[in-house]
């Protein structure tokens, strides 16, 4: 059984190349901490990566849909709508048990 699924953005250094930027999920299974890579975000624009970091940190959990000014509003809105459609907030919510069926 899997408990406390947490998603985060990891920057993994490469020797002579730019670091890999990965969307990862951390969870406990059988008393051990496991990590799974969900997506490679290395080729994303920095604004999209920043928006995804904010989304993963839960900054938009109680967002009501009111207008936000700034250059990345469209990206943030699209990411929030996508997360809502695939029920991501249920999977990474802290202090909630998540099942392995989220992904």
What can you see in these coordinates?
The protein is an alpha+beta fold and 103 residues long. 28% of the residues lie in helices and 29% in strands. It is built from three helices and three strands. It has helices at 46-56, 73-85, 88-92; strands spanning 2-12, 20-29, 32-40. A three-stranded antiparallel sheet has the order 1-2-3, with helices on one face. A hairpin with a 2-residue loop joins strand 2 (20-29) and strand 3 (32-40). It starts with a strand and ends in an 11-residue tail after the last helix. Residues 95-103 have low confidence and may be disordered.
Summarize the structure.
The protein is an alpha+beta fold and about 100 residues long.
Query: Which secondary-structure class do the elements indicate?
Result: alpha+beta
Beta-strand residue percentage: 25-35%
State the strand order across the main sheet: 1-2-3
Separation of the first and last Cα atoms? 14 Å
């Amino acid at each position: 059984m899997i408990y406390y699924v947490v998603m985060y953005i990891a920057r993994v250094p490469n020797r002579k190349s730019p670091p890999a930027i990965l969307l990862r999920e951390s969870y406990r299974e059988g008393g051990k901490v496991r990590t799974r890579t969900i997506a490679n975000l290395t080729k994303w624009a920095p604004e999209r990566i920043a928006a995804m970091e904010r989304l993963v940190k839960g900054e938009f959990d109680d967002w009501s849909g009111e207008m936000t000014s700034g250059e990345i509003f469209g990206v943030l809105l699209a990411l929030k709508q996508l997360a809502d459609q695939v029920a991501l907030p249920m999977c990474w919510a802290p202090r909630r048990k998540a099942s392995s069926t989220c992904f």
